[in-house]
Design brief:
By secondary structure, the chain is of the alpha/beta class. It is 38% helix and 28% strand. The strands form 2 sheets. Strands 1, 2, 3, 4 and 5 form a 5-stranded mixed β-sheet that branches. The protein has a 5-stranded mixed β-sheet with strand order 6-7-8-9-10.
Length: 199
């Protein structure tokens, strides 16, 4: 799903509390710091985007966050985003968008070929579902990073409230979020790895 990016300075008033906490915790000094941020965000229905930085002295950098389920807005710190990109920790947004679109195109074409009459970019009250058939609900991510998988799980859970009775499937290129596969399976969500040669 396409995300709309909003610098921290332009966050609307309802996000002020999260904005303050976000500004105070950009530097993730330890695994405990990361756990504390994730717990706080979970309590406030937010998904933090924390980039692990093994080549740097710090444990990681919290550079962005979004609402837990169905959100299209990603609130981010432009300075940290640029820094992480310059260090090679984040891919340019355009490349990820193209990569995600390629995967979505291929899934749509394959489903159509199988006679499943898929629909894509389906607008719901809670967000936009990437690909939908009569019995399947797909959320596509460019890479199955931990943050991407957590967000996808939240999206599928809330979308399935509006589109019940469908198998929930996350698709994307290999990433560290694969470690969450067993947890996703317990929630009735399948995770599929998209091979680079396939897209």
């Amino acid at each position: 799903m396409q995300l709309d990016f909003h610098p921290v300075a332009n966050i609307f008033p309802l996000m002020t509390g999260a904005d303050v906490y976000f500004h105070q915790h950009h530097i993730v000094a330890s695994a405990q710091d990361k756990s504390d941020i994730e717990s706080w965000c979970k309590e406030h229905q937010l998904v933090p985007f924390i980039c692990d930085t093994p080549r740097l002295e710090m444990h990681g950098i919290w550079w962005a966050y979004t609402e837990y389920a169905g959100a299209r807005d990603l609130v981010f710190h432009p300075g940290w985003e640029s820094y992480l990109k310059s260090m090679g920790y984040l891919q340019p947004k355009g490349k990820q968008d193209v990569s995600e679109s390629i995967i979505e195109d291929a899934i749509f074409a394959n489903l159509k070929k199988d006679g499943k009459q898929p629909a894509r970019q389906v607008y719901l009250t809670s967000g936009i579902a990437d690909v939908v058939t009569a019995d399947e609900l797909y959320e596509v991510k460019a890479y199955l990073t931990r943050d991407a998988v957590i967000k996808a799980i939240g999206q599928l859970e809330i979308y399935s409230q509006e589109l019940p009775g469908r198998s929930k499937i996350i698709v994307g290129r290999h990433g560290d979020g694969i470690a969450l596969r067993s947890f996703a399976n317990r929630m009735g969500i399948e995770m599929r790895i998209w091979r680079t040669k396939d897209a």
